[in-house]
Amino acid sequence: MSTSKKRRYHHGDLRPALIAAARTLVEESGVGAVSLRETARRVGVSAPAIYRHFANKDSLLAAVAAEGFRDLGAALAAASRSERDPLSAMGMAYVRFALSRRGVFRLMFGPEMAKRASFPELKSAADQAFQWLQGGVQARGRVAQDSHLAAIAPWALVHGLAQLFLDGVLPETQAETITAAITAPRRPAVSDVKPTPRRAAK
Predict the structure, then answer these.
(1) What CATH fold (topology level) applies to the domain 58-184?
(2) Domain range list for the chain
(3) Could you report the per-residue pLDDT of 38-57, keeping only the tens digit for each?
(4) How many CB atoms lie within 10 A of CB 68?
Protein backbone atom coordinates (compact mmCIF):
# COMPACT_ATOMS: atom_id res chain seq x y z
CA MET A 1 0.00 0.00 0.00
CA SER A 2 1.47 3.34 -1.01
CA THR A 3 1.88 6.11 1.50
CA SER A 4 -0.56 8.28 -0.43
CA LYS A 5 -3.34 5.76 0.12
CA LYS A 6 -2.78 5.41 3.84
CA ARG A 7 -5.25 7.21 6.03
CA ARG A 8 -4.21 9.98 8.35
CA TYR A 9 -5.50 9.87 11.90
CA HIS A 10 -5.49 12.62 14.49
CA HIS A 11 -4.11 11.81 17.90
CA GLY A 12 -6.56 9.58 19.76
CA ASP A 13 -8.48 8.49 16.66
CA LEU A 14 -6.42 5.48 15.64
CA ARG A 15 -6.98 3.28 18.70
CA PRO A 16 -10.81 3.32 18.44
CA ALA A 17 -10.52 2.68 14.69
CA LEU A 18 -8.30 -0.35 15.30
CA ILE A 19 -10.71 -1.72 17.92
CA ALA A 20 -13.63 -1.26 15.54
CA ALA A 21 -11.77 -3.06 12.75
CA ALA A 22 -10.84 -5.96 15.03
CA ARG A 23 -14.43 -6.17 16.27
CA THR A 24 -15.66 -6.43 12.68
CA LEU A 25 -13.17 -9.23 12.02
CA VAL A 26 -14.37 -11.09 15.11
CA GLU A 27 -18.00 -10.80 14.04
CA GLU A 28 -17.29 -11.75 10.43
CA SER A 29 -14.89 -14.65 10.82
CA GLY A 30 -14.19 -15.33 14.49
CA VAL A 31 -11.28 -14.66 16.80
CA GLY A 32 -8.88 -16.67 14.66
CA ALA A 33 -9.23 -14.17 11.82
CA VAL A 34 -7.82 -11.31 13.89
CA SER A 35 -4.20 -10.32 13.43
CA LEU A 36 -2.42 -7.03 13.96
CA ARG A 37 -1.40 -6.91 10.30
CA GLU A 38 -4.94 -7.52 8.98
CA THR A 39 -6.41 -5.05 11.46
CA ALA A 40 -3.93 -2.39 10.35
CA ARG A 41 -4.68 -3.15 6.70
CA ARG A 42 -8.42 -2.70 7.27
CA VAL A 43 -7.89 0.64 8.93
CA GLY A 44 -5.44 1.72 6.24
CA VAL A 45 -2.31 2.27 8.28
CA SER A 46 1.09 0.64 8.28
CA ALA A 47 1.54 -2.45 10.46
CA PRO A 48 4.11 -0.77 12.77
CA ALA A 49 1.58 1.95 13.61
CA ILE A 50 -0.60 -0.51 15.50
CA TYR A 51 2.19 -1.25 17.99
CA ARG A 52 1.90 2.27 19.34
CA HIS A 53 -1.44 1.20 20.82
CA PHE A 54 -1.31 -2.59 21.18
CA ALA A 55 1.68 -4.70 22.11
CA ASN A 56 0.24 -7.88 20.63
CA LYS A 57 -2.92 -9.59 19.43
CA ASP A 58 -4.03 -10.46 22.96
CA SER A 59 -4.04 -6.82 24.04
CA LEU A 60 -6.09 -5.89 20.97
CA LEU A 61 -8.62 -8.65 21.64
CA ALA A 62 -8.78 -7.59 25.30
CA ALA A 63 -9.73 -4.08 24.18
CA VAL A 64 -12.48 -5.50 21.94
CA ALA A 65 -13.78 -7.66 24.80
CA ALA A 66 -13.68 -4.72 27.23
CA GLU A 67 -15.80 -2.69 24.82
CA GLY A 68 -18.20 -5.65 24.65
CA PHE A 69 -18.53 -5.78 28.43
CA ARG A 70 -19.18 -2.03 28.56
CA ASP A 71 -21.94 -2.44 25.99
CA LEU A 72 -23.36 -5.41 27.90
CA GLY A 73 -23.23 -3.39 31.11
CA ALA A 74 -25.13 -0.55 29.44
CA ALA A 75 -27.79 -3.02 28.25
CA LEU A 76 -28.12 -4.48 31.74
CA ALA A 77 -28.27 -1.00 33.27
CA ALA A 78 -31.13 -0.04 30.96
CA ALA A 79 -32.95 -3.29 31.77
CA SER A 80 -32.47 -2.75 35.52
CA ARG A 81 -34.91 0.15 35.34
CA SER A 82 -37.76 -2.26 34.57
CA GLU A 83 -40.66 -1.60 36.93
CA ARG A 84 -41.89 -5.20 36.84
CA ASP A 85 -38.83 -7.34 37.54
CA PRO A 86 -35.32 -5.99 36.89
CA LEU A 87 -33.66 -9.41 37.11
CA SER A 88 -35.90 -10.93 34.42
CA ALA A 89 -35.43 -7.86 32.23
CA MET A 90 -31.66 -8.15 32.59
CA GLY A 91 -31.83 -11.84 31.70
CA MET A 92 -33.62 -10.95 28.48
CA ALA A 93 -31.13 -8.18 27.75
CA TYR A 94 -28.27 -10.62 28.29
CA VAL A 95 -29.63 -13.14 25.79
CA ARG A 96 -30.45 -10.43 23.25
CA PHE A 97 -26.92 -9.09 23.51
CA ALA A 98 -25.45 -12.54 22.94
CA LEU A 99 -27.56 -13.11 19.83
CA SER A 100 -26.86 -9.69 18.37
CA ARG A 101 -23.11 -9.68 19.11
CA ARG A 102 -22.25 -13.34 18.58
CA GLY A 103 -18.57 -13.08 17.81
CA VAL A 104 -17.82 -10.54 20.52
CA PHE A 105 -19.88 -12.50 23.06
CA ARG A 106 -17.89 -15.67 22.37
CA LEU A 107 -14.68 -13.66 22.68
CA MET A 108 -15.77 -12.12 25.99
CA PHE A 109 -16.23 -15.53 27.60
CA GLY A 110 -13.81 -17.56 25.50
CA PRO A 111 -10.48 -19.13 26.48
CA GLU A 112 -8.58 -16.16 25.04
CA MET A 113 -9.95 -13.97 27.82
CA ALA A 114 -9.61 -16.47 30.66
CA LYS A 115 -6.64 -14.51 32.01
CA ARG A 116 -8.52 -11.23 32.07
CA ALA A 117 -6.74 -10.18 35.25
CA SER A 118 -3.76 -9.42 33.01
CA PHE A 119 -5.79 -6.63 31.37
CA PRO A 120 -7.07 -4.10 33.96
CA GLU A 121 -9.42 -2.38 31.49
CA LEU A 122 -11.07 -5.69 30.61
CA LYS A 123 -11.37 -6.84 34.22
CA SER A 124 -12.91 -3.53 35.27
CA ALA A 125 -15.49 -3.62 32.46
CA ALA A 126 -16.41 -7.25 33.23
CA ASP A 127 -16.73 -6.58 36.97
CA GLN A 128 -18.98 -3.56 36.38
CA ALA A 129 -21.28 -5.56 34.09
CA PHE A 130 -21.56 -8.30 36.73
CA GLN A 131 -22.47 -5.74 39.38
CA TRP A 132 -25.72 -5.03 37.52
CA LEU A 133 -26.71 -8.68 37.92
CA GLN A 134 -25.92 -8.43 41.61
CA GLY A 135 -28.23 -5.44 41.82
CA GLY A 136 -30.98 -7.40 40.09
CA VAL A 137 -30.67 -10.20 42.64
CA GLN A 138 -30.97 -7.70 45.47
CA ALA A 139 -33.96 -6.00 43.82
CA ARG A 140 -35.78 -9.32 43.75
CA GLY A 141 -35.18 -9.64 47.47
CA ARG A 142 -32.60 -12.41 47.30
CA VAL A 143 -30.11 -10.66 49.51
CA ALA A 144 -27.51 -13.13 50.70
CA GLN A 145 -24.48 -12.68 52.88
CA ASP A 146 -22.37 -13.15 49.75
CA SER A 147 -24.12 -11.13 47.03
CA HIS A 148 -21.45 -12.13 44.51
CA LEU A 149 -22.20 -15.80 45.03
CA ALA A 150 -25.95 -15.17 44.95
CA ALA A 151 -25.66 -13.54 41.51
CA ILE A 152 -23.80 -16.48 39.98
CA ALA A 153 -26.94 -18.64 39.77
CA PRO A 154 -29.00 -16.26 37.56
CA TRP A 155 -25.87 -15.41 35.55
CA ALA A 156 -25.17 -19.10 34.91
CA LEU A 157 -28.81 -19.57 33.91
CA VAL A 158 -28.98 -16.82 31.29
CA HIS A 159 -25.44 -17.47 30.06
CA GLY A 160 -26.27 -21.13 29.57
CA LEU A 161 -29.45 -20.18 27.71
CA ALA A 162 -27.52 -17.80 25.48
CA GLN A 163 -25.00 -20.51 24.62
CA LEU A 164 -27.75 -23.02 23.83
CA PHE A 165 -29.34 -20.56 21.41
CA LEU A 166 -26.01 -19.63 19.83
CA ASP A 167 -25.08 -23.28 19.33
CA GLY A 168 -28.46 -24.13 17.85
CA VAL A 169 -29.36 -26.58 20.61
CA LEU A 170 -32.45 -24.51 21.38
CA PRO A 171 -34.34 -22.78 18.54
CA GLU A 172 -33.31 -19.16 18.29
CA THR A 173 -36.78 -18.27 17.02
CA GLN A 174 -38.08 -19.08 20.51
CA ALA A 175 -35.30 -17.31 22.38
CA GLU A 176 -37.45 -14.56 23.84
CA THR A 177 -40.34 -16.85 24.78
CA ILE A 178 -38.10 -19.40 26.48
CA THR A 179 -35.99 -16.78 28.25
CA ALA A 180 -39.05 -14.93 29.55
CA ALA A 181 -40.58 -18.16 30.88
CA ILE A 182 -37.42 -19.37 32.60
CA THR A 183 -36.34 -16.07 34.14
CA ALA A 184 -39.78 -15.09 35.45
CA PRO A 185 -40.05 -14.87 39.25
CA ARG A 186 -40.78 -18.32 40.60
CA ARG A 187 -44.20 -18.81 42.11
CA PRO A 188 -44.52 -21.38 44.89
CA ALA A 189 -45.78 -24.73 43.64
CA VAL A 190 -48.48 -26.57 45.57
CA SER A 191 -45.87 -28.96 46.92
CA ASP A 192 -43.88 -26.00 48.24
CA VAL A 193 -46.72 -24.76 50.42
CA LYS A 194 -46.48 -26.31 53.83
CA PRO A 195 -49.73 -26.58 55.79
CA THR A 196 -49.96 -24.64 59.01
CA PRO A 197 -49.76 -27.07 61.95
CA ARG A 198 -53.02 -27.35 63.79
CA ARG A 199 -53.02 -26.76 67.48
CA ALA A 200 -53.96 -29.73 69.53
CA ALA A 201 -57.43 -29.47 70.95
CA LYS A 202 -57.53 -28.74 74.62
Answers:
(1) Tetracycline Repressor; domain 2 (1.10.357)
(2) 58-184
(3) 999 999 998 888 999 999 99
(4) 26
